[in-house]
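Service request form, structural biology core

Requester: graduate student, group of Dr. S.
Request type: structure prediction, single chain
Budget code: on file
Notes: please return the result as structure tokens.

Sequence provided:
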Amino acid sequence: MPTKFFTNQEGNSLLKKFEGVFTHIQSIRYFDALVGYFRASGYFKVRPFLDKIQKIRILVGINVDKLTEEFHAKGQLYLKNPDRTKEEFVNEILQNIQDADYDEETEKGILQFIDDLITGKIELKAHPDKKLHAKIYIFRPSVFNEHSPCEVITGSSNFTDAGLGANPNSNYEFNVSLRDYDDVKYATDEFEKLWEQSEPILKAEAEALKKKSYLADTATPFQIYIKMLMEYFGKRVEYDPYNIDLLLPDKYKRLKYQSDAANQGFAMMMKHNGFILADVVGLGKTIIACMIAKKFIYENGTHTKILIVFPPALEPTWRKTIDEFMIKNHIEFITNGSLHKVVDSGKHHYEYSSADRYDMVIVDESHKFRNDYTDRFIQLQQICKTRRSRPSEDGDDKKKIILVSATPLNNSPEDIENQIYLFQDPRNSTLDIKNLQQFFKPLKDDYKRLSQETLLNIRSVKRIFEEIRDNVIEPLVIRRTRKDVENNEEYLKDLKDQGIEFPKIKGPTAVKYVFNDELSKLFYDTITYLTCRDDDENPTAGIEYYRYRAIEFLAKEEHRKPYGDVGAISTRLAAIMKTLLVKRLESSFFAFKQSLGRFQKATSNMIDWMENDQVPIAPDFDANAFLEEHTMEELEEKMNAKGGNNKIYGANDFTKDFLPKLKKDKEYIDELVDRWNKIGDRDPKMDEFIDKLKKEFLSEGINHSGKLVIFTESKETAEYISLNLTKKGYTKILSVNASNRKTLQNTITENFDANYENEWKNDYDIIITTEVLAEGINLHRSNVILNYDVPWNSTRLMQRIGRVNRIGTQAKYIYVYNFYPTDHSDNQISLSDTAIRKLQAFHTTFGEDNKIYSQIEEVGEGALYGSHIREEESEILKYLIELRRFKTSHPKEFKKIQNMPWRTRVGRKASSASESPLTLNDSTIVYLKSQNHPGVFYYIDHANNLTEMSFLEAVKIFRCTEDEKAIPLHTSHHRHVQQGLEFFNEDVNQQTIQSLTRRQLSPAENAAISNIQMIIGSAPTAQKKAVLAKAMETIKAGGIKGLTSGINTFFKTNSLKDLQAFIDKLFVEVLDGYSLKPDSEKKSESGRIIHKPYIVLSESFSGGSE
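Core staff response, request fulfilled:
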């Protein structure tokens, strides 16, 4: 016996039931439907069976809860309101029309539905105060009694495509068909009661459905053109984003080179999700970044939240500038070393927002994040790569990143590579070069090879960095030198009109000092002992730094294993200590003797510990990473400290040769200490400095203000210089280091900052400082800078010079003096070649105002404006201006076009866009968007070939005269639009990661993926499985730094015996530290989700007449 139930499965759908009833029961003349949800497209599916039906009555529910809530919000009580009931219904039907399939058949059905409403074939009512969830369909003949055939269907199916089971992906429903008269009579009586209580949807509302929807087809080509501009420019029409000067505080100068940089930078940021602002020091990068931030807040909305990351020394500058721009309510400030407070904000309830709450991140002195092995780089990358919890209006959920640094390159191509990975995907960039990892690898290999060669090859270095500049730097960096600004006639005139003149750089000038024979011999022997190399670079006897190599001499493997590669670690620590001592020697004899004495004591301590059978060894730490946050002096202190978490070993735990080697080192150290003590206070470098002080450094012909800035890497050298100056009668000396910088901030500003707005002070004329003042401070009342020791770091050298070469200086010339290293130390450590190689890389890649270290450097030009984007933006500007003018001159028409619905379309003559190079006959251009995609233009030609277009390419076709008439759409219009919509959903268009084979991944990445695959099937919850899957996907995409190594290290150091405990621990110790939130919605096979794609508008071209 057949069942009366059906479920929309296996062809047994509600639609089939309707077809059977209307086809086989010929006497049926009345059809009533009571449903919670009604879709016009659903009605159309049934419409072919309804020709013989005399009367169709449909009673629908409305969202009563929504109306009640709306009235409550106004302090009113929602009662039956016929007008609101009709309005709510019409709005729902309009939305239904906008969401319906975009094809000719569906549109004909919707129009038929509207026509049936107008002619009265169908009556529609909406109940004003009951939430109708029932689904009842009643079929009756003209004469309805217990002898006539009739039927009622009830269950879960609404009057929609999905409820009817109109396609294979329809809902699973549960319905029952009843044919007993009593059942049908009861259902009919209940329906009649509700029908009497309900409000009719009259013909006027039916007419409005067509007029308010895209099916009205009344738009003109010019209205479509204006609508296209409105959709593209969005909020920008409300203000002039290109007149960015309006965003500046009143007291700031309006400098065109700054406003142009802000406009270009904003365009780069929106196109590539970030950019590097790398103008030379002193051109106002902080101001430019704030202009961009304020513009972004205007366009993104009042909810915008921005994180600004900076070294501690820059905090006062940023807080002051943000306050003056009046955007502090949108800003959170954080120092480089506190990023964990954002990453772990949920765990420890720090005062910072979670990473997904930030829409933009500004990173000042971004070169400090050039090393991807540091914790702070990994933390920053996590913050930058975490998707925004609140996407922009166009659906974009990627953070926007501004990296601010005048010196983004210091050591190698990796410096740039790592920084751009903060906003670019390594294997799927937004640049023409999609796989950045493949692009950088051979260049890094070449640079590494060159850095190991004995002779400096400037030409080869230039070649490497020219390639990086042309392919990566140019589209992602704004970089102007003062020469670039002055070579631009418009900028130069603007500067002159505002009384600004850039000073010229004199130098760098070498300051040399001469040793007598005794000192020369001592200096030579010291360098030889420290480096174990003679003049010909041959190995010779000397100090081997065994004090810092203890783990290398542990005898047992189980003692060595916890430290990792003990040989490499020991070699690294020894090399760092060797460099530290050589640099101290070049800084000052005084600083060197202090460090040498500490080294002597540290070595003696180690010998004593060995002889007393108690040797404390601190766990290994990454000295390179430590130096990212601290000075060499702090590293020296840490290396010599005992520490609180040392492991104690006995003398027998070390190999027999360790103690004799320590004692041999001590012999050399003791000899040097003794010989240096004998020379007493003799110091030719200090003598030369004092001699030139009056003659040159403070002479009126050179030093216009009588103020001098002296830089040294060593706090002890700074104290030594200060002491000697005091002895010579100089009293207005200010000595600054990390311990007193904050307390002296106001004093420094009052005495050395030419931009200080209050009365200048002259309490101090000479400022002696460590690197603590190399950034974030103005010292440009002085025009003379003396590098008492050279840091051999291009970044620090350029930053130092930037303290005095700034806007606001009254000097016409800037003088730079460098104390050159002696020949011996230069040959032994090869620091000079190292410095020049790094500086040449920088000059080639970014350009610079002047030589920094040596006259053999070749200075390049900056002039990185993002030229292609700049040209695009200037052309785009004219369309925004046109739209703004139209809004001003035609406000009513502007409002009317603004209210035109999405999907609005028009037919045009192909000849109307005669300037287009495309073959437009029988073609279509469609503009598509989604909730998380800013939009795209597709051109589909007569042969159904699809091509993506830029805005500029599309707008030139959309543009037309106001009097152009529309023509009918050609027959391929719907198919073309559907083709564009389908392509928009495909992963080929979703900026996804490239399809990679396991062979293309690194061994470490393959190992991490294999490790995850080993356990993913045993994950205890679906959520943990999803996180593990997300981890694999992240690794394939190029990953977040630290994730791959973290997973592999965990698998190496933990047992799989208790698999569940292993997985739990993996999450706690590794995975929970990364943003691996699984996507909540279904993805295409390899792409990110396109949320609710929709058709903005379209135009089809044909040869038809008006």
